[in-house]
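User: Okay, second chain of the day. Same drill as before: sequence in, structure tokens out.
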Amino acid sequence: MKAIFKKEFRSYFLSPLGYVFIAVFAIVTALFFFIYNLVQGIGDTSYLFSNITLLLVLIIPVLTMRSFAEEKSRKTDQLLLTCPISVTDIVLGKTLAAYAVYGMALALTLIYPLILSIYTDIAWSVMFCNYLGFFLMGAVFISIGIFISSLTENLLISAVASFGALFVIYLMDWLSSSVKNAVLGAIVNAVSVTARYSDFASGIINIPHLVYFISAAAIFTVLTVANIDKRRWAK
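Assistant: Same drill. Structure tokens below.
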């Protein structure tokens, strides 16, 4: 797994993809930080993160689209699948590499609370919850994107399908409040990722929500392993 992680992480920066992902994330978050925190004088980052959730929906498919789709299109997946390494290690290596790139982009925003601390007292526990929740939500999105990438060999289809899936998830919070049927509304709310982030944004580590994020990321990772494993035995 370590070798796969290193190879995948390095590949993000051997092409413009990793740099573009981090640059776009940094530019957009800096813009929202300027508008919400500096101009409006808001002393925490909850508004910042709550308003850039849609950014993850837009850019994470670009980060994950090549994970397995590119391997298939270049036919290098056949070599990868015949290597003496488990499918689980392959999937985990690729997934952790994507997490690491996303974590790097998120880590750059740590300068914002440091800037805010110059002008106001920072509730660091709330800040920690903000970052934890936002990272976990991004991890779920990445796991979904990598699963979709494992289903196709076309990078464009992978990106568009991932965007579609994440956008539907993004709308779940709005749909849950719009659905009149109580049972259907409960079902929609049960799969809403963004609704569960709201507690973290408020500085609350809700254990069921924490378990939900970790479980959702794990489930899609397992689904990716199962899909790749099926193809491995089919060869």
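The two ends are 22 Å apart (CA to CA).

User: Thanks, on to the next one.
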